[in-house]
Amino acid sequence: QVHLVESGGGLVQAGGSLRLSCAASGSIFSVNAMGWYRQAPGKQRELVARITRSGTTNYYADYADSVKGRFTISRDNAKNTVYLQMNSLKPEDTAVYYCSAESTRGTVSWGQGTQVTVSS
Question: What is the DSSP string of 82-119?
Answer without folding.
Answer: EEEEE-S--GGG-EEEEEEEEETTS-EEE---EEEEEE
